[in-house]
Design goal:
This protein is 35% helix and 18% strand. It contains 8 helices and 9 strands. Strands 1, 2, 3, 4, 5, 6 and 7 form a 7-stranded mixed β-sheet that branches.
C-alpha cells in the first residue's frame, strides 16, 4: 500500500522574534505530527508561511497589484496544502493588520476543501472571543472547513501550570480526524494519548459527519442563499450536517423566502 502524504501549511502572523504566536503554532504543529503519525500509511509535510517575512511583499502587492516570487510561493503553499494551521496575535479585539492583509492577497475560495485550525494569542483571556467574531468568519468566507474548537492562548497560558497542552490535544484531534477521514488515510489500531484525548485514529464517522465540508470550487452563483456555502444542496460533493433522519440536520431557508413568509404572515 502506498504511503499517503498530507501537507500542512502553517501560517503564523507573529510580529516579534521570538513570538508567542509562532510558539503556539509550533506546539499545534508538533501535536498534529504526533496524532497523524498514529496513522499507518501517512507522512506529514509541514510548510511554514511566516507573515513577518512577507510584510514588504504584501504591501508591494497592494501598491502595484503584482505579487513578488515570495508571495507567489506562499500562495502556492496554500494551494497544495490539505490542512492549514493559522495563528495571529489579537490587537483591539481582532486579528492583526498583517494577518488580514495577507488573506486579502489570497484568491477568494482558495481554502475550499481544506481543513483549518484557527489559533490566536493575546495578553489576556478577554480577547478569546476574537476567534469566533473575527477569525472564523474570515476563514469560512474563503470556504475553509474550520474545525469547531479553535485555540486561544493568553500570556499566562505559556506558564507551567495551565491547561493549554490538553486544549491543543483536543483541537488537534478534530483537525487531524477530519484530515484522516477526508483523504482516505488507512489508520492503525486506536491508541490513547497520555493526556487522555484520543489520537486522530480514534475519530469516528459519527464525530465528523456534522462537519460542513464543501469540495466544489467557489462560485459566486453558489452563494449563501443557494445553500452550498452552508454545506447543503450540492449532493454527493458535500458531506451534510448530520444524516437524513437526524433531527439536528442543518437546513437553511433562503433569505428571500424568509421575507416572503414574513410578508404573508
Amino acid at each position: 500500500m502506498m504511503t499517503k502524504t498530507l501537507t500542512i501549511a502553517v501560517v503564523s502572523a507573529g510580529l516579534s522574534n521570538p513570538s508567542s504566536t509562532a510558539l503556539l503554532a509550533d506546539q499545534i504543529t508538533a501535536e498534529t505530527r504526533r496524532q497523524l503519525n498514529a496513522a499507518a500509511d501517512v507522512q506529514i509535510q509541514v510548510e511554514r508561511i511566516e507573515l513577518r517575512e512577507l510584510g514588504n511583499a504584501i504591501m508591494q502587492y497592494f501598491l502595484t497589484g503584482i505579487p513578488t516570487p515570495a508571495l507567489d510561493q506562499a500562495h502556492a503553499t496554500l494551494a497544495r496544502a490539505h490542512g492549514v494551521i493559522t495563528a495571529t496575535p489579537i490587537f483591539k479585539a481582532s486579528y492583526s493588520g498583517l494577518f488580514k492583509s495577507f488573506w486579502d492577497t489570497v484568491e477568494e475560495g482558495a481554502l475550499a476543501g481544506k481543513v483549518i485550525l484557527p489559533a490566536a494569542t493575546g495578553g489576556t483571556a478577554r480577547h478569546s472571543l476574537a476567534l469566533e467574531t473575527s477569525l472564523r468568519p474570515l476563514l469560512a468566507y474563503m470556504k475553509g472547513i474550520v474545525i469547531p474548537s479553535g485555540l486561544f492562548a493568553a500570556t499566562d497560558d505559556f506558564g507551567t501550570d495551565n491547561t493549554l497542552p490538553k486544549r491543543i490535544q483536543a483541537s488537534v484531534q478534530e483537525f487531524a480526524g477530519l484530515l484522516v477521514k477526508l483523504h482516505g488515510v488507512q489508520v492503525s489500531a486506536t491508541s490513547e494519548s497520555s493526556g487522555g484525548y484520543p489520537t486522530a485514529v480514534a475519530v469516528t464517522s459519527a464525530q465528523t459527519d456534522g462537519a460542513l465540508v464543501g469540495t466544489d470550487d467557489y462560485d459566486e452563483a453558489s452563494g449563501a442563499n443557494s445553500g452550498s456555502f452552508f454545506g447543503i444542496a450540492k449532493g454527493a460533493a458535500v458531506i451534510n450536517a448530520g444524516s437524513g433522519d437526524d433531527p439536528h440536520r442543518l437546513t437553511v431557508t433562503p433569505f428571500e423566502q424568509l421575507l416572503q413568509d414574513a410578508h404573508n404572515g
